[in-house]
Amino acid sequence: MTDACGCAEPETGHGAGSDGGRRRALWRVPTMRLAAVSGLLLAAGYGAGWLGAPGWLASLLQGAALVAGAVTFVPGTLRLLLRGSIGVGTLMTIAAAGAVALGELGEAAVLAFLYSLAEGLEAYATTRTRRGLRALLELAPRSAVVLRDGAEHTVGVERLRVGDILVVRPGERVATDGVIRSGRSALDTSAVTGESMPVELGEGDEVLAGSVNGPGVLEVAATTTAEDNTLARIVRIVETEQARKGTAQRLADRIARPLVPGILATATLIAAVGALLGEPAVWLERALVVLVAASPCALAISVPVSVAAAIGAASRFGVLVKGGAALEALGRVRTVALDKTGTLTRNEPEVAEVVAAGDEASDRVLTVAAALEARSEHPLARAVLARAAGGDPVLDVEDVMAVPGAGIAGTVEGRKVRLGRPGWIDPGELAPAVRRLQADGATVVLVEHGGRVIGAIGVRDELRAEAASTVGWLRRHGYRVLMLTGDNAVTAAAMANSAGIEPGAVHAHQRPEGKARAVASSDARRGTAMVGDGINDAPALAAVDVGIAMGAAGSDVAIDTADVALLGDDLRLLPRALAHARRARTIVWQNVGLSLAIITVLVPLALSGTLGLAAVVLVHEVAEIVVIANGLRAGYTRQPTTEGAAASWRHTGGAGHGVPVSRRR
Predict the structure, then answer these.
(1) Phi, psi (5° rounding) for residue 265?
(2) CB-neighbour burial class of residue 134 (10 A; exposed 0-12, middle 13-18, buried 19+)
């Protein structure tokens, strides 16, 4: 609980991990056990009075109930007071002491019981949401089979070293992140990335800790230790970033901190005025009731519980939300900017067509292009090299120089060669072919050898299968969708049309700094999210309210720099993340509104004497229980269906229920 509540920290260590179910976990929270004891003693005390038992027995039982309940918050209150801090626990302690001084032992016991019950439920809610997050670590096995000195050895995961060769048999979980050294299999990565369909992987592919191996036997070279694998990083980052507070949470803190001393001053003033009026006992009691009625404990705890529940739930379906600020911002998003390459497309470009000029041969065009592209790291280079493989040997190239935003140049066979976009190179007689390829959505690369254009290569990166349905969902739900790309306007328009993005929302010919300017413009910046790879799009990701990294599982840079990371490689995680954040934000503000409404209604009723101490305590603490229960709703996820013309919902929960996707490598 926050300092505003003035209570001890929740027992986060209790009920963690597999505990045999919610009921058992609830009773493992010490505060909850003390609240139960307080309630039983309180019931016994009132029962003794109703049955005509001696008064001392009823008082003894009520006093014991008071002590059992007060133990849960009075020590924490005193520790805060010694540090010069006051909170809601301070108000409750004063109210209970005042009730005892007025001879209302039963009402003091009721206050202590109900407040301890609310404390216990909050502690349970907090441990439950953290337990869901920490359960990710349980997905990795506790031991692994390692090849050492030519023999297999079973070792604890804490003894794994980078470079160890793990043997992963069918049905086993991968113990830590690594690269497949031999073997091929289909792996279930749903618990980590949210992708419910198995992913086919082979030699050279990366595997993530917690993935379940399919039919094949794999040898995996470990690239991280168990303490630093993907699962451990996710848990560590989320637990650290949960300290970042969203707008609603900061509002709750801003209200609660000055409210507590203000309540104390008001209660003191009421008691002083009552003494001047000649009815000190009556007005002292009312002052105590006002003090309890205005307690902002529900306000102070409602937001953290909601945020923790929402972030924990998001991590279970493959979305890493880094703290309350990111969750709040994601729930406000109304404009979504999508990078084209690797986000809307598969980032697996292929040569669609080669057009040779004059009497040049297509194979010759590819050979010259491949000579330069062999020195390039651009995604299009891989497509050209893949198409040229098996043809003529790669020619020797000298003086290679990249020209940012244009292409690459060098010397091949003693003559200057340039490879780049139309505009940097004049297409000449190939202009009609260039326009045709661009209209078909291909990126065109011109090849110039010895000052003459010898050919054009059309490279196309196909849209993801889920791109159009995802864009359709976004537009149906009122989101403005932008597309950012470095491609030319014609190619970008063709790709946007296939994805269902309006022509006016396409920003073509964009370099990284241009993308940042586009998303930061006053027209677009109305709760804007940028979806990219977390590295090349860094300026744009930094310029928006929420930077979202796509396919970030296993990427240190993406996970560390993005506000939100889609761990899976499926774009349909985006609608689910947005819908989840918007629902969580609604729940947060419901709790803030309800908490403030309770204070607004109870204070005048307490001041007028309409409600006594017991009634105010009951209403206040029941309200606190309600906001905790409402906050826990943020931990239940709903998966939006992006297919079809109408949006529908189907309920899901827990790991392994992500968005279906099939990916081959």
Answers:
(1) -65, -40
(2) middle
Beta strand 443-449 pairing with 415-420? antiparallel
pLDDT of 653: 35
Query: pLDDT tens digit string along 471-502?
Result: 999 999 999 999 888 777 887 888 888 899 98
Domain that holds residue 212: 141-228
The answer to whether 339 is a known catalytic residue is yes
Residue 641 pairs in a beta bridge with 648
The answer to whether residue 106 sits within a structural domain is no
Question: Which residues have a Cβ under 8 Å from the Cβ of 89 and sit 6 or more positions away?
Answer: 5, 6, 7, 73, 74, 76, 77, 80
| pLDDT, tens only, 431-447 | 999 999 988 878 889 99
In the chain, % of residues over pLDDT 70: 77
* C-beta neighbour count of 652 within 10 angstroms: 17
Nearest to 620 by CA among 646, 643, 594: 594
* Per-residue pLDDT reduced to its tens digit, 338-362: 888 778 887 778 888 999 998 889 8
CA–CA separation, 205 and 181 (whole Å)? 8
pLDDT at 193: 60
Q: Which of 339, 533, 545, 570 is catalytic?
A: 339
Domain boundary among 228, 255, 270: 228
Q: Is residue 122 included in any domain, yes or no?
A: no
- Domain count for the chain, please give it: 2
User: Taking the CA of residue 463 as centre, how many other CA atoms within 13 Å lie in the half-sphere pointing to its CB?
Assistant: 21
CATH code, domain carrying 151 = 2.70.150.10
Provide the whole-model pTM.
0.65
CATH number at residue 362: 3.40.1110.10
Identify the pLDDT of residue 627: 85
Amino acid at 164: D
Average pLDDT, the chain: 78
- Kindly state whether residue 358 falls inside one of the protein's structural domains: yes
Specify the 3-state DSSP secondary structure of 601: helix
Domain end (from 412, 431, 460): 460
C-alpha 584/C-alpha 533 separation (Å) is: 25
User: Using the 8-state DSSP alphabet, how is residue 423 labeled?
Assistant: T
In order of 18, 30, 33, 128, 308, the CA distances from 24 in angstroms are 10, 12, 11, 12, 21
* Nearest residue to 246 via CA among 655, 617, 585, 611: 585
pLDDT above 60 (res 90): yes
Within-domain flag for 135: no
- Taking alpha carbons only, the member of 640, 78, 584 closest to residue 331 is 584
